[in-house]
Write a structure and sequence with these properties.
Blueprint lengths: L5 E4 L5 H9 L7 H17 L1 H11 L11 E2 L1 H9 L3 H19 L6 E4 L5 E8 L2 E5 L8 H14 L3 E5 L9 H10 L3 E3 L3 H10 L9 E3 L4 H10 L4 E2 L7 E6 L5 H12 L6 E6 L2 H14 L6 H11 L1 E4 L3 H11 L3 E5 L3 H5 L7 E4 L5 H6 L25 E8 L2 H17 L3 H14 L1
Length: 436
């Protein structure tokens, strides 16, 4: 099957412009969507449960009469877990154990140090009191996202983890509920869309107000998260999934074609790019793409993704490949080369780096251990994967001894007067006098 995937070369004079065009993603939200989401948020804030029930019944085609009917109890979560096939339950539990073990290493602890005059400085680490996890519902079932969002919060010591998942027509995927039980969620509510985000952000009679909202969703969910940011924290506004593969030509081209498919199948806006210094290898991967695509159930989505946003890029050498990779700053970066450690040392911007020929990106999506919630749309230049640190707060600790108050007070007073803030200076100087 022929797939119209563009070919670029760094040797071409227009390469930079063509790469910019390839990476461009229109993230502006339609004005009508913004207006609708704003109206929903304002209504939830004004009317609480009454508005939440109206939107849930309208958008999810349900007949919920009271807020209490939105919650799923722990017993139902356990039953969903017990009803799984043995293979699926063991797989979810094994993935959860690996994710937990990895994230345990991220946990930060309170620290202090004492200066010579007895002044104590440090940092106090405190988990969030309550976090909200949004999980897409309907025909989609993403138990892996449940694990990736809840487990870091649990490891961080969050006091209460609240999950929101829509139930169109009253239907829920049992595997999602089972994953929530395995991950250790505290409460689950069958709400979705912008109304769920608003309820989590501001609280209703039934839904507790949270301190931070994490988890993926559609354009209405993403828009709502952006609008409530400030009232609550959010993880990120995620764009379409991305994979960039750098290969020296030594990996089976069928493997690389399938790696590109693994992200392209998410949706038509997903981006899959291959970079290689071997033009003949790019031809071989293109042949693999055409031959393997018809066997894929989501072939139509993959074809559109590769045609609209995919590319095969020829570079002069792997050093240039690393420079292009840093410019792209991909969500997922595969280094399918003979010496991945050496090449990884030259990478500054990537959400996750998959090193070596045998490390498929899909392993990171499910069970390797690191989080699969990653920065997209070149935001890996300044953002990081979701982790335990997203559910912990840092407070500075300052405790002056009398001698410390005297020496620091004199410094502070001098600096405060240079800024014209005499009350600041006076406040510091009172302690100087008291300390002698």
């Amino acid at each position: 099957m022929n797939v119209a995937i563009r070919r670029l070369s760094t040797a071409a004079p227009d390469f930079s412009d063509r790469l910019d065009a390839l990476l461009a993603y229109e993230s502006e939200v339609d004005g009508a969507v913004q207006q609708q989401v704003r109206a929903i948020i304002d209504d939830i804030r004004a009317r609480g449960d009454a508005a939440l029930l109206e939107y849930t019944n309208r958008f999810d085609r349900r007949s919920v009469a009271a807020g209490a009917q939105l919650e799923i109890g722990q017993a139902e979560l356990r039953r969903a877990r017990e009803a799984l096939t043995d293979d699926l339950r063991r797989a979810l539990e094994a993935a959860a154990a690996r994710i937990r073990a990895y994230h345990e290493r991220q946990r930060q602890e309170t620290w202090t140090y004492t200066e010579a005059d007895g002044t104590v400085l440090g940092q106090k680490i405190t988990p969030l009191a309550r976090a909200g996890v949004y999980v897409p519902g309907g025909r989609a079932a993403y138990p892996s996202s449940v694990l990736m969002n809840i487990i870091p919060a649990r490891v961080a010591g969050v006091g209460e983890i609240v999950m929101a998942v829509p139930a169109p027509d009253g239907q829920l995927e049992p595997v999602v509920l089972a994953a929530a039980d395995i991950a250790g969620v505290d409460r689950v509510f069958t709400i979705g869309g912008a109304q769920a985000v608003a309820a989590l952000a501001y609280g209703t009679e039934t839904i507790p107000r949270v301190d931070k909202i994490v988890g993926p969703g559609n354009i209405y969910v993403a828009t709502a998260k952006a609008m409530v940011f400030g009232a609550v924290g959010i993880d990120m506004i995620a764009g379409p999934s991305e994979i960039l593969v750098v290969c020296d030509g030594g990996t089976d081209p069928d493997w690389i074609a399938m790696d590109m498919f693994s992200q392209a199948e998410h949706d038509e806006q997903a981006q899959a790019i291959l970079i290689s210094p071997d033009p003949a290898y790019l031809d071989r991967v293109a042949e693999s793409i055409g031959r393997l695509l018809p066997s894929q159930p989501r072939a139509g989505i993959i074809r559109r993704s590769l045609s609209d946003r995919g590319a095969l890029i020829a570079v002069r050498d792997l050093d240039e490949a690393a420079r292009i990779a840093n410019r792209i700053a991909p969500e997922h970066l595969e280094l399918s080369v003979a010496d991945p450690q050496a090449l990884a040392a030259k990478i500054d911007h990537a959400g996750a780096i998959f090193m070596g020929r045998h490390t498929a990106e899909a392993l990171g999506d499910y069970c390797a251990g690191p989080n699969h919630v990653l920065p997209t749309a070149q935001t890996a230049r300044f953002s990081s994967p979701l982790g335990v640190y997203d559910f912990q707060k840092r407070s500075s600790i300052i405790m002056c001894s009398p001698a410390g108050a005297a020496s620091l007070g004199r410094l502070a007073a001098t600096l405060a007067r240079s800024e014209g803030l005499t009350a600041h200076a006076g406040s510091a100087e009172y302690r100087v006098t008291d300390a002698g």
